[in-house]
Design a protein that fits this description.
- The structure is a single chain.
- This protein is of the alpha/beta class and 168 residues long.
- It has one domain: 2-Layer Sandwich (Nucleotidyltransferase, domain 5).
- 52% of the residues lie in helices and 22% in strands.
- Strands 3-2-1-4-5 form a five-stranded mixed sheet.
- The longest helix has 29 residues.
Length: 168
């Protein structure tokens, strides 16, 4: 299963693509889509959409794993990130992909075993699980890969559970 992980943002949108075979992960690609602060918000969203569409066409993932928004005290920022997240979901949906959404707590739990883990712990686990030399930069990229790994673990667990239930 090929999974596209997305850490939504309007200035930096992290993405990571992993291939899951059995219970092993292999990284296919990762990076960040960036937009300039001087750009009009409409143009930023168009840039995010077209860039994500190109990434999806290049890597052909089957499913997208998108981080849900956490509470943000700055309402304007939360709304702008929400718009970027909506554009990411639309790009994936228009490409015919299944979409899974996970909270930061769920992602941390899946990678570290602790929903309150520190960012450095999650980054270390991304590096370790994917057998990378260094932690992917920027942080948004590591977060996107973490979202992809989280979905892989979740899908694998659900698959095992359905097999057990079929046996009974």
């Amino acid at each position: 299963m090929r999974i596209l992980g997305i850490d939504p943002g309007y200035a930096i949108l992290g993405y990571g693509i992993v291939e899951m075979k059995g219970n092993h992960f292999q990284v296919c690609g990762y990076g960040a889509v960036t937009t300039e602060a001087s750009m009009d918000m409409t143009d930023r969203l168009k840039c995010l959409y077209s860039s994500l569409t190109e990434i999806i066409a290049e890597y052909e993932p089957e499913v997208a794993s998108i981080e849900e928004l956490f509470f943000n005290t700055n309402t304007k920022t939360a709304i702008m990130v929400g718009q970027a997240r909506g554009v990411a979901i639309l790009a994936c949906a228009n490409s015919g992909m299944e979409i899974a959404e996970y909270t930061p707590l769920q992602i941390k739990q899946a990678l570290v075993g602790n929903g309150r883990a520190e960012k450095k712990q999650v980054q270390y686990m991304v590096k370790t699980i994917l057998n990378l030399k260094d932690v992917p930069k920027p942080d948004d990229t590591a977060d996107a890969l973490a979202a992809a790994i989280c979905h892989g673990h979740s899908a694998h667990a659900n698959e095992r559970l359905s097999r057990v239930l079929k046996v009974k």
